[in-house]
Write a structure and sequence with these properties.
The chain is globular. The protein is α+β, with helices and mostly antiparallel strands. It is about 55% helix and about 10% strand. It folds into 3 domains: about 190 residues, Hypothetical protein af1432 (Orthogonal Bundle); about 140 residues, Beta Polymerase, domain 2; about 140 residues, Beta-grasp domain (Ubiquitin-like (UB roll), Roll), CATH 3.10.20. β9 and β10 form a beta hairpin. α2 packs parallel to α4, α6 runs antiparallel to α7 and α7 runs antiparallel to α8. It has 22 helices and 11 strands. The strands form 3 sheets. Strands 1, 2, 3, 4, 5 and 6 form a 6-stranded mixed sheet that branches. The structure holds manganese (II) ion.
Length: about 500
């Protein structure tokens, strides 16, 4: 990768001032890494430039590109954070610092490790690092992607170590951020190093199977096209092939053969509007026999990382089993790019708002857990007491989605109780909680919510938080808010009691 190439990729997306900064950062990084080489023997600067190029392709803001270019300078060269801050500003310096720290945390040095729960889980360290700025993780993902694609130059033991960590930490991380395409790239590369034999075997197996089914699929493709066209719906249709790694995972899960996997190829139909998704679904179901239990409405109930689509598996007239995925362009964009889709190039609004304290306002709904994490991380920094076990629980539980009656979506850890939901909506609403209605029915305070529940908080002006609520919240967020409210009530009662004592004495 040459400087001119990188600048050419950047040019359409940033204004002239920003391009000047990028140009400057390339020069600075080139000078700093001047005598260093990658394991491949290439000049080191190739690496940060490719990282920056990846971030440009993901549509990240300028600060991220600059930090991508400089991400290895503080650790490996004479450049200091102060210099970076003086030239490019505090945000860029913070990002570089964050990336450096995540690296340190991973290699088991102190620093972030001291925040970490009693687990060696690297994911936790990464997640906590998000407390600083989620863009740190995205730069780290771009970094990891390039390191994975140049893994052949490292000794075998390092290959295995990096590949395993990628599969266990970075893949799930990308998934949590909704970055489906990146997750898949990381997994495929890592798996090919971790189990090269199995990777090749599955790849060949898939090739054979795909050769056969692609010919048959052509006909289905046409049938579907004709049927949808009759309804005056704008659409695109294409095939997506399952990744080798997800095939491997699925085979292990069902303990079956490749013949039991129905979504080796899925046909993807992309439309303009949400309504059209359901229309297309009903067209498909009129056309073919549906497989019971294989219809999934991830539009009404998105996956915990925000993924939305309708999935259905049908049996065609030729007895072929085919999976369809139906989504809008917007949902498709999100499925592929996830959180990166929120940082659109020179859309500085998000980046500016991203400065401490305002981060939450601009994150998509499905990424609320990041905001909660940032709150927790901020508290940890202030040395406030938070049980580490509690933190651990919040971070690693699977997440569920519940809806407000208005249709807003809220993301909670699995096992969350109604009060957790109420405190997530607003602590003033939670404070007045009198009862809960879930899917229209009265719901006890101590019964966990389920994915997809519609939760209504019934409030009463006279209700107030009770001590017994302590055992009916599970999230750190709710616990902290409740604690504060109980403290306030306690004080008010003390004052009232004191006042009545004084009155009685009079
Ligand atoms: Mn690097």
């Amino acid at each position: 990768m040459k400087k001119s190439e990188l600048l050419a990729h950047a040019k359409p997306h940033y204004n002239s001032d920003q391009l000047l900064e990028i140009d400057h950062a390339i020069d600075l990084a080139t000078k700093a890494h001047a005598n260093q080489k990658r394991a491949s023997g290439e000049p080191y600067i190739i690496h940060p430039m490719i990282v920056a190029d990846t971030l440009i392709a993901w549509g990240m803001d300028t600060d991220s590109i600059l930090a991508g270019l400089l991400h290895d300078t503080v650790e490996d060269t004479n450049i200091t954070l102060v210099e970076i801050e003086n030239i490019f500003g505090r945000d860029v310096a913070n990002l570089v610092d964050g990336v450096t720290k995540v690296g340190k945390a991973r290699s088991g040095m102190r620093d972030l490790t001291s925040y970490s729960p009693q687990t060696k889980d690297n994911l936790s360290k990464l997640l906590i690092a998000i407390g600083q700025d989620i863009r740190v993780i995205m730069i780290k993902l771009a970094d990891r992607l390039h390191n994975l694609s140049t893994l052949q130059y490292l000794p075998p033991d390092k290959q295995t170590k990096i590949a395993r960590e990628s599969l266990e930490v970075f893949g799930p991380m990308a998934d949590r951020l909704g970055m489906g395409r990146v997750r898949m790239q990381i997994e495929e590369l890592a798996f090919s190093y971790l189990d090269p034999k199995e990777f090749k075997r599955l790849k060949n197996l898939m090739k054979k199977r795909l050769g056969r089914s692609t010919r048959k699929l052509g006909k289905i493709y046409e049938e579907v096209e004709v049927a949808i066209k009759k309804h005056d719906i704008k659409f695109e249709i294409d095939g997506r092939v399952k990744s080798v790694y997800s095939l491997h995972k699925k085979l292990a899960k069902v303990q079956g053969s490749i013949d039991d996997i129905y979504d080796l190829i899925a046909l993807r139909i992309i439309v303009d509007k949400k309504e059209d998704c359901y229309l297309v679904l009903s067209i498909l179901h009129t056309l073919y026999k549906t497989m019971i239990g294989r219809i999934k409405d991830y539009i009404a109930t998105p996956k915990p990382n925000g993924y939305q689509s309708l999935h259905t598996t049908v049996i065609t007239t030729a007895e072929q089993i085919v999976e369809f995925q139906i989504r809008t362009h917007e949902m498709h964009e999100y499925a592929e790019r996830g959180l990166a889709a929120s940082f659109h190039y020179h859309d500085q609004k998000l980046s500016k708002n991203y400065i401490k304290g305002k981060k939450s306002a601009t994150l998509p709904n499905s990424m609320q857990w990041i905001t909660q994490l940032q709150e927790v991380a901020a508290k940890l920094k202030d040395n406030e007491e938070i049980s580490k076990a509690q933190l651990n629980i919040d971070l690693f539980k699977n997440r569920i989605f519940v809806h407000s009656p208005k249709g807003d979506i809220y993301n909670l850890p699995e096992g969350a109780l109604p009060l957790d939901f109420a405190y997530l909506v607003h602590s003033d609403i939670a404070k007045r909680a009198y009862s809960f209605r879930v899917n229209g029915k009265i719901h006890p305070f101590d019964k966990p919510l389920q994915n997809g529940d519609i939760v209504e908080v019934v409030t009463n002006k006279l209700s107030q938080p009770k001590q017994t609520w302590r055992s009916m919240v599970t999230t750190t967020h709710a616990r902290n808010k409740l604690q504060g409210q109980l403290r306030k009530i306690g004080m008010a009662e003390m004052i009232a009691n004191a006042a009545s004592v004084i009155r009685r004495k009079k």
